[in-house]
Write a structure and sequence with these properties.
The chain is mainly β. The protein has five domains: 3-137, no CATH class; 142-218, Immunoglobulin-like, CATH 2.60.40.10; 220-304, Immunoglobulin-like; 313-474, no CATH class; 478-608, Jelly Rolls, CATH 2.60.120. Strands 19, 21, 22, 24, 25, 26, 28, 30, 31, 33 and 35 form an eleven-stranded mixed β-sheet that branches. A five-stranded mixed β-sheet has the order 1-2-3-4-5. Strand 42 and strand 43 form a beta hairpin. The longest helix is centred in the middle third of the chain and has 18 residues, at 383-400. The two termini are 66 Å apart.
């Protein structure tokens, strides 16, 4: 024996083979479905005010009587919403088959199998059903669907009836909601006063009904106009999506337990620098026991120059490099007006996947605004490749000022980046972070379970803040000047040595990973003939590769091991002249630094490099 009771509007759908105690359900509304009868072939009987209206006995293979009856009830509901005019009810018989219809609305199809089960023809059964519908809906009736009213919001509810008398309310819990009547418009305005549920009685002349009204909190609401700021051009679509999500989240006040869904089809085609002025973004917030929030937001797009300034610190998240358990890997505070470069490089050594997250927390009451130049690489099992791609893209985007703005509301946490790492996979990245808001922010790198919630959680209560990391190093560039005279001894330039001490003075950054090196090489030729010198890349601590901007042109050194060398540039020097070569590079995570750049005569044997402007 089992009981299934579901309210569909004021339509009650019951499957039962045992009696139901009267106190457990509302009095029957005007339209209900009750499945009765023997186990072998139970008909589904549709009742109107307790009187049988239609009895369905058959269904096509694979379709249950329950689903057919539910569809009929839904169509009858549509018929009643349209006024329930019985003069529109008739038999439709054409090439499509036979049906009971109300104008263009087919209420129920009458199959040959159904007619045979009732010992008649489809047309005959349809005519009987039309007569029953007319007789029933010509009697006074009133109907109001079951509703859910948002807390502290007005909800208009239409009263459907064939009566002409005034609508009256016969009872409800006034602590749960208030009701305002507009009889002339057959309208009730419900306003949720506290979360709960009540039964509302409605009469119109001789007809009466009850409907269930719930009051729930809205899943979210728009509290400000969202805006997104993008820096430079050729911004990756994934990063534009991050900025959009940040802007929308900052504009929506989400209720606890709600999930925000953003339709990112608004980013197709991708915004064009200087041309796209706004985006129309459909958003929806929903969650258990919450009233959904849905709205199309118009998001202005501001194109601006990246706010360059002094780099105050280099942050390194690499201790531990190997992720052996979920938890915090790096945490540091970024004060208002300050800028930091974050380098992370981690490998998942667990037996199960994890997510590596970059999180921004705003634990204050101020406005969090963070300008970002992002370069992220992985997942991959090739640590040298991961570090190379991260450095390659960072140097390019930092030079071009390509990035985006994040907005972090007071007391909230936002995760602009997450990557799933399978066992033995590596993620590497370099981010430039500039705090241009009015709130100090906390930046952290975490390994979390793949199911962890990303955004919208409290900045102070989602998890305890770990101690700040000691791996904070000066943000100064390493500036190097070298002079080389053709015909004299080779010139050696060390990249990554000596190691840089941290701000506390108790750690050193071996290899100087993440530190920008700017090198100026003066090459002079004392001879009366033109001469050529070579600039080569020479690993000294193991397998390595590198990315270089030499006189503004990007050059990639392929992976090589000592004692191999790779030619980066041939330097042509006129007779009795000199030339200057500018080099910009950064030690790459995953590679073995320090390495050496060598300036030497052009007759030395060296491997040739590949110059590439591709990403």
């Amino acid at each position: 024996m089992r009981l299934f009771c579901r309210f569909l509007a004021w339509l009650v759908f019951v499957l039962a083979v045992a009696p139901v105690h009267p106190s457990t359900i509302l009095p029957p509304p005007p339209l209900s479905i009750v499945a009765l009868s023997p186990i072998d072939a139970p008909p589904a009987t549709i009742l109107f005010k307790g009187t049988p209206l239609l009895r369905l006995r058959t269904s096509p293979p694979g379709i249950s009587l329950e689903s057919i009856a539910s569809a009929v009830v839904s169509r009858l509901q549509t018929f009643m919403e349209a006024g329930g005019e019985t003069s529109t009810l008739d038999v439709r018989s054409d090439a499509r088959g036979v049906a009971v219809a109300a104008g263009q609305l087919d209420i129920v199809e009458v199959t040959s199998e159904e007619a045979r089960a009732n010992n008649t023809t489809p047309e005959g059964l349809a005519a009987v059903w039309v007569g029953r519908l007319r007789d029933s809906f010509d009697t006074p009736w009133v109907w109001v669907p079951a509703v859910t009213a948002p807390l502290n919001e007005d909800l208009p509810v239409r009263v459907h009836t064939n009566g002409t008398e005034d609508i009256r309310i016969t009872g409800f819990d006034a602590e749960v909601l208030s009701i305002r009547r507009e009889p002339a418009r057959r309208l009730l305005t419900l306003r949720g006063r506290q979360i709960g549920e009540t039964v509302v009685g409605v009469t119109c002349g001789l007809a009466s009904t009850q409907f269930r009204a719930r009051v729930l909190q809205r899943a979210g609401r728009a509290v400000r106009v969202p805006a997104m700021t993008l820096y430079g051009s050729n911004i990756p679509s994934t990063q534009i999506g991050v900025s959009l999500r940040s802007a929308v989240l900052a504009a929506i006040d989400l209720t606890a337990g709600a999930q925000l869904i953003i339709d990112e089809r608004a980013l197709s085609p991708s915004p064009i620098a200087g041309q796209t002025e706004s985006l129309h973004v459909p958003v929806k917030a929903e969650g258990p026991n919450l009233v959904p929030f849905q709205q199309e937001l118009i998001v202005p797009v501001c194109w601006s120059a990246y706010p360059r300034g002094q780099l105050h610190a280099l942050w390194v998240s690499n201790d531990p490099e190997r992720i052996g358990a979920v938890g915090d890997l790096f945490s540091q505070e970024l004060a208002v007006g300050q800028s930091a470069r974050l380098l992370y490089h981690h490998k998942n050594t667990m037996d199960e996947p994890c997510n590596l997250n970059i999180e921004i927390l705003n634990p204050t009451d101020g406005s969090g605004m963070l300008a970002v130049v992002e370069s992220s690489a992985g997942p991959t099992r090739d640590e040298i490749h991961a570090g190379h791609i991260a450095c390659l893209h960072y140097l390019k985007r930092e030079r071009e000022g390509t990035g985006y703005l994040l907005s972090i509301p007071p007391g909230k946490r936002f995760t602009p980046y997450t990557v799933r790492l399978a066992p033995s996979q590596i993620a590497s990245g370099i981010w430039q972070l500039t705090n241009i808001g009015t709130a100090h922010l906390i930046v952290r790198c975490r390994a979390v379970a793949p199911s962890s919630q990303l955004n919208n959680t409290s900045a102070s209560t989602d998890s305890p803040l770990p101690p700040y990391s000691l791996h904070v190093y000066p943000g100064d560039n390493r500036d190097i000047e070298v002079s080389h005279e053709i015909g004299r001894r080779w010139s050696f330039i060390s990249i990554g040595f000596p190691a840089t001490p941290n701000e506390a003075g108790n750690l050193c950054l071996a290899g100087n990973y993440g530190i920008l090196h700017t090198i100026r090489v003066r090459v002079s030729n004392p001879h009366e003939n033109a001469a050529t010198a070579l600039l080569t890349f020479a690993p000294s601590g193991g397998v390595a590769r590198g990315t270089f901007y030499i006189d503004g042109e990007r050059v990639e050194a392929p992976t090589c091991s000592p004692p191999s060398e790779t030619v980066l540039k041939q330097i042509e020097v006129p007779p009795l002249g000199e030339v200057y070569v500018s080099i910009e590079t950064m030690p790459e995570a995953g590679s073995n630094y320090p390495i050496r750049l060598i300036v030497k005569p052009n007759h030395s044997r060296s491997r040739s490099t590949v110059n590439s402007d591709s990403d």
